[in-house]
Structures are given as C-alpha cells and as structure tokens.
Amino acid sequence: MCGVFGVENNKDAANIVFQGLLSLQHRGQESAGIISSDTKNNITRVHRGMGNVSYVFKPEYLAGLNGDIAVGHVRYATGGKSSLENTQPFWFDCKHGRVILAHNGNIANDKQLAFMLQKTGAIFAHSSDSEHIMHMIEREKGDLETALPKALKKLNGAYALILLQGSKMIGVRDPHGIRSLVLGKLGKSYILTSETIAVELLGGKVIKELAPGEIITIQKGKIKKSYIFDKKDKAVCVFEQVYFSMPASRVQGQEVAVSRMAMGAQLARQMKGIKADIAMPVPDSGMFAALGFAKESGIDFEQGLVRNHYMGRSFIMPTQELREHLVKMKLFPIKTSIMGKKIVLVDDSLVRGTTSKKIVKLLKDCGAKEVHLALSAPKVISPCFYGIDTPTKKELMSTRMNEKDIAEFIGAESVTFIKINNMLAAVAGNEQNKKGKCGGYCAACFTGKYPTGLKV
C-alpha cells in the first residue's frame, strides 16, 4: 500500500505535494519522493529518499523543486525490494517524451509481463512492477493517451496511477476500483490523490472518487477528457476501511471513522453477554472500533495503551523482525487502567499474530485479569496480490489455527473475529450476495475469491 499525490497548474506545486504527502504518511513510511516540472522552461526536478516525508524533504531540498506541476509518492513495498532505486515517482524518457509515473497498487501478473518484456529487449532500471507498466505503455501504438488504455487492459491487478506529461496530469483507476484515486480542486489547480483527507487538509474541495476504470486528463486547470476505458464489477479494497485510510477520510462516501465504529458495534452484538470491565483499543487503528464496541455493549471505554507517535505503523514494516521490534517501542501501558481488569482488547485485524501476542503479554504483565481479543476484520485466510504485504498462506495464522488455538498462542482468554457479513454491513450496509461478491468491496483476503479472477 502506498500513497500518491499530484497537483497541476500551480506555481507552488512541490510544496503542495509535500503537504499532501504528510497527510498520507500513514500509507507508507519506507521512502518518499517528489518530481516537479517547470513546464515553461521544460525543466524536471526530482528528490527522493529513504525514510518518512519530513526526513526526506528538508527545507533546502524542497526549495529546489521549483515547478508548476508535480507528483509525489510515499512507499510501502509490496513488489520490489525496499531501496532508493525503487523509490517513486519514476520518470521515463521514451517515445512519448518525458513521462513521470506514480503508482499505488500491485500488478498480480507482473512476473509474466516482465518475462515477456525482457524477451522483447526491455532493460529494467528498477525491480518494481510500476516500471513495467510504463514499458507496457511504450510498446503500444499511438500517442500516450491512445497507448495507455491498450496497455492497461493487459494488466491483472490493482492500480491507481498519476502520470505527468508536460503540463498534462493523467489519473487512472483500475477497472475494479480496488485502489482509490480522488479528484480535488484547490483554487485554479486540480489534485489527484489516494484519500479525501489529503485534499481537505489543504483547504481544497473533494470533487469525487474516480470511477472504476476511469481515465482523466487535466491540463492547465481544465479537465480535458474523462472516460471509462474498462469497467468491471466494483471491488474496492475493504482493508482501506479496516486499517489503511485515515479515520477522517471518506471511502465510497462514508467516513472511515463511522465504518470502524459500526464494526465495533457489530462485534459487541456478536459478543453479547461477555463479562468485562473495560473495552480497550490497540491504538491507533483499534480506536474507533473500540468506541463503537463500548457504546453498543455498555462496557466502559478505557485507553490503557498509549502510542508513541514518533514510531511508524507496525503492519507496514517490510520485515517481521522490524514489526516485532516496533511493537516493543511504540506502546506504553497505563498500569492503573489495566491492573486487575477483565479487558476486551479491540484491534483491527490479526494477520501473523506476533503483534497481538506481545500486546496481550504486555497487558498480563501489568496485572490484567483477563484479555479477550476482539477483531474488526474477519479471519485473513488468503494472501493479497493487490498491494498488501501478505504474500503467502504460510504467514497467515488463521489458515493454521482456529479461534481456540489462536487464543492459546497469543495468551488471551478468547479471540473473536467479526463475521464477514457484519463487517460489510458496517462499511456499506451490504450483505455478501449469493455469487460470493461483497457488495462493491474486495474481501479476497477473507474469502479467497479474487475479483480479477486469480486462482491460488
């Protein structure tokens, strides 16, 4: 999962992108980059680096990114190693001139595409699927806007793309709409970005989420073209609601905080009759679900864990070793809130289980009498090939253990996962239909049914 942000027709483009990336920092903390263009003088400027946005973009670097159009990217690697060479945006000098690309998502058939491209003479500068997209575009006939939809139809996966060509900014959302792309307006400039909050924090106005399969071309403050190049059944990633998006962002018109509170309320109904003293969130991702749980159940809400906000998000660290180290460093217990209490611990999801185990141990070491883990996502039983780092079933605890075994492994008295229909009702008011499709959402990680037809 990554974050993208582009703005056109603005003399302060790079600074606006910098601010936009700050509001998307939760989507990727490994690396960040901005490329800006001075379209009048045909000058491109770039700065990329490893680390978070504030670390990478010191004032002196930002001051050197003069231009009237720019795009930025924050990265959490799901394809290609975590390195400076894979830090986006990328630029390409090709038959279409200089094209700049930022990509959020993951191409599931990338290995096949890369093999085909190499057989026909392609040389890669990066180990990222994002570069392969540009190679696919270049091999099609016609100008960039003609070649783009032809190439995209050969991709199987999830993508939200921002491309810059001269003074043009082009946005693309994959045909299922798995990855989000938002159109906004700031004065006389248009913005394309991953979340609504990135527009609103700048004082801009959100116009819409691009439709699944939509390509939009913007130039000098005007929308030149907008059309659907390929539309399939909508399958927006439900993990945006569960974990990735900021609570103040909106997904399909609903605030993420509202969805998470509704998930918590659904969990409380599932766990009706549970005897507990407090409902406690794992901060920050479990916060709103815990509030919803407490309100529905009548159990007191208590913050017994405080997050160190100078640490990153453990789920999106690139290795298990880093994830485990980060858990130790980022959560501080409030012992008086924990000691002697029966606790319902509310978190967003359980993927590998190691984080939950360490948190339960932390609570027990502080004198918790009981810990009952309540999760606002169902069991993760299948890997994601669309941009979340769960590449094999071997990593997924729920494929190997039932609830009782999981509870024993993590040291809790019980573990409860939200039922998938209850989660979907919370985010969209839709129940899973007879065909196994999930009311406009991709829930492949919970069902094993992939919207793009992948077989695992």
Automatic annotation (TrEMBL):
Transmembrane segments: none annotated. NCBIfam families: purF. It catalyses: 5-phospho-beta-D-ribosylamine + L-glutamate + diphosphate = 5-phospho-alpha-D-ribose 1-diphosphate + L-glutamine + H2O. GO terms for biological process: 'de novo' IMP biosynthetic process; purine nucleobase biosynthetic process. Binds 1 [4Fe-4S] cluster per subunit. Binds 1 Mg(2+) ion per subunit. Its cofactor is [4Fe-4S] cluster; Mg(2+). Mg(2+) binds at S285, D347, D348. Gene3D superfamilies: 3.40.50.2020, Glutamine Phosphoribosylpyrophosphate, subunit 1, domain 1. This is Amidophosphoribosyltransferase. In the C-terminal section; belongs to the purine/pyrimidine phosphoribosyltransferase family. Its EC number is 2.4.2.14. Keywords: 4Fe-4S, Glutamine amidotransferase, Glycosyltransferase, Iron, Iron-sulfur, Magnesium, Metal-binding, Purine biosynthesis, Transferase. Pfam families: GATase_6 (PF13522), Pribosyltran (PF00156). It comes from the Bacteria. It comes from Elusimicrobium minutum (strain Pei191). GO terms for molecular function: 4 iron, 4 sulfur cluster binding; amidophosphoribosyltransferase activity; magnesium ion binding. [4Fe-4S] cluster binds at C237, C384, C442, C445.
